[in-house]
Amino acid sequence: MVQELIGVAAAVGAGALVYLAAAARVVKQYERGLVFRLGRVYGDVRRPGFNMIIPAVDRMRKVNLQIVTMPIPAQEGISRDNVTVRVDAVVYFKVVDPAAAIVNVEDYRFAVSQMAQTSLRSIIGKSELDDLLSNREKLNQGLELMIDSPAVEWGVTIDRVEIKDVSLPDTMKRSMARQAEADRERRARLINADAEYQASKKLAQAARQMADTPSALQLRLLQTVMAVAAEKNSTLVLPIPVELLRFLERGRDEGRPAQTQATPQEQTREPEQIQAPPPAETPEPAEHPLDQTEQAIEELRRAVEQ
User: Fold this and answer.
1) HEC string of 55-122?
2) What is the rounded distance in angstroms from the CA atom of residue 63 to the CA atom of residue 33?
3) Which positions ≥6 away from 67 have C-beta within 8 Å?
């Protein structure tokens, strides 16, 4: 009798363990459980932790509440300014109502994906190329609003939508490259013209300053000669300033001896008393001014070479 009781207790315990194993459900922290009893939603949404259901009567569906990152396949379309573009994006969403996500839509992931693709094609047709390339933040907000409106009934909320890449035809890329190059060239020309204008103003001021002091022009000439002569790889043709020739001419005039005039006593002498002066030695011919100029040029050239 005792053995029979022990056998019955063991059988009941085993049955209880089997029932417990079949009825026990564990819901993770990032999940929520929805129980269907005979095809109808029963009770509230099950919280994370250990939960019990009736085997063969209840069925639990678990819904993930984590943010889902879903890439949107590249969509090809024509923008408002008639440019063929290919745009791909990514959408971030999460489930906020597990019951609506399971009951109201067959597959909320597939529904969100199709709605995102349709909205992306629509936003391409409403936008211009410049907006797709430079004003993406505004387009992202519009795309998020278009996807989020129908997704509210599915128990899904759209966290954000980002346009990843915009592909253009090769011909359009070349056209944009030529446009950018032309704009850069225009800016470079404007900058050069402004620099020439400022330089001309400074040169005009320098010219007025040198007009007041002509010696400054000679100093500037000598500085230029020194800068060019430092390379020693070219032939330098140096013009002789007119002031230098005048200086040499004044030096030649000052070096001539003054002519002696006869005194009044000598003029009153009788012709026979005036004795003829002894024949003076013939003076050596004075150097020609051109010779002096050539010597000056030679000395100047030697100074530059040193």
Assistant:
1) CCCEEEEEEECCCEEEEEEEEEEECCCCCEEEEEEEEEEEECCHHHHHHCCCCHHHHHHHHHHHHHHH
2) 6
3) 92, 93, 94, 159
Secondary structure percentages of the chain, helix, strand, coil, to 5: 55, 20, 25
In DSSP terms, 34 is beta-bridged to 61
Global pTM value: 0.58
pLDDT value of position 3: 76
pLDDT in tens, 26-64: 999 999 999 999 888 888 889 999 988 888 888 999 999
Burial 188-209 (b: 16+ CB within 10 A, else e): eeeeeeeeeeeeeeeeeeeeee
Question: Three-state DSSP class for 287?
Answer: coil
Residue 302 has pLDDT above 90, yes or no: no
> For residues 43 and 36, is the Cβ–Cβ distance under 8 A?
no
* Per-residue confidence (pLDDT) for residue 190, from 0 to 100: 93
